[in-house]
Amino acid sequence: MIKEENITTEATKTDNKQAIIEIKDLHKTFGKNNHVLKGVDFVVYKGEDLVVLGRSGSGKSVTIKCIVGLIQPDKGEINVFGENILELPKAELNEMRVKIGFLFQSGALYDSMIVRENLAFTLRKHKRDLKPEEVEKEVIEALDNVGLSEAIDKMPSELSGGMRKRIGLARTLILKPEIILYDEPTTGLDTITSREISELILDIKHKRKTTSIIITHDMACAKLTADRIIVLKEGKIQAEGTYEELEKSEDEWVRSFFE
């Protein structure tokens, strides 16, 4: 369904793996006493789908919003492709952001635009030299990639929750990002649609060779998509491992996610 692409990056190598994202000692406090992140450290390797679990308020979404600059951390480093994005000038940061796709919980579509216009708007914003026929071709291809080419002239209000998620993902994919950050991609969806979205995440990984962080409460999604899982507790990493390893954790709190 999705076309193969050769994506190359320059990143540090650790144990023969390329570290695409490196988070070091990340801290974030809101107000005076709401300490959301308290020294988070982790690495995401090239081609890996890393799932982040944690209770509400544990800092999962704040972490990935820091990676794309939607939230500024108080302390720490965020290295993406070997560059500390917290030190990049605005122009270079904007170039980096094009390589990072972000799928919001809601899909974040513009309600006043039909699907075609939603995708074309994103494309024109970043690739202004494209001709109208080239934009149309890219829009059709992106929709075909998520199996919704027939929705091209529909308004967001005409779409189901699962369709909105797919369109949101198509809009993310249209810029051909090397990294995709998924914020609760299956929340609010029924079991069957949730599995379809999870399978689409896997399809994207295998065909586009993307590197992803997936924030989720959906353990079925985590089991299907995760190469590795980290568990956040009160702003710190409590555990790390595969689904099977954490399912058998000696830590009762960690194990409770898998019961």
What does this structure look like?
This protein is α/β, with parallel strands linked by helices and 259 residues long. The protein has a single domain (19-256), classed as Rossmann fold (3-Layer(aba) Sandwich). Helices cover 35% and strands 27% of the residues. It contains 9 helices and 11 strands. It has helices spanning 60-67, 90-98, 115-126, 132-145, 161-173, 191-208, 219-225, 243-247, 252-255, and strands at 12-14, 17-30, 34-45, 49-54, 75-80, 83-84, 100-103, 179-183, 211-215, 228-233, 236-241. The strands form 2 sheets. The protein has a 6-stranded mixed beta sheet with strand order 7-8-9-4-10-11, sandwiched between helices. Strands 1, 2, 3, 5 and 6 form a 5-stranded antiparallel beta sheet that branches. Strand 1 (12-14) and strand 2 form a beta hairpin. The longest helix has 18 residues, at 191-208. The chain is globular. Mean pLDDT is 89; it is low at 1-14.
Gyration radius, to the nearest Å? 18 Å
Q: How many structural domains can be distinguished in the coordinates? A: 1
Helix content: 25-40%
Largest sheet: 6 strands, mixed
Structural class, please? Answer: alpha/beta
CATH architecture: 3-Layer(aba) Sandwich
Give the topology, please.
Elements: E1 12-14, E2 17-30, E3 34-45, E4 49-54, H1 60-67, E5 75-80, E6 83-84, H2 90-98, E7 100-103, H3 115-126, H4 132-145, H5 161-173, E8 179-183, H6 191-208, E9 211-215, H7 219-225, E10 228-233, E11 236-241, H8 243-247, H9 252-255
Parallel strand pairs: 4-9, 4-10, 7-8, 8-9
Antiparallel strand pairs: 1-2, 2-3, 2-5, 5-6, 10-11
Helix pairs in contact: 3-4, 4-5, 6-7
GO molecular function: ATP binding; ATP hydrolysis activity
Domain ABC transporter: 21-259
Protein name: ABC transporter ATP-binding protein
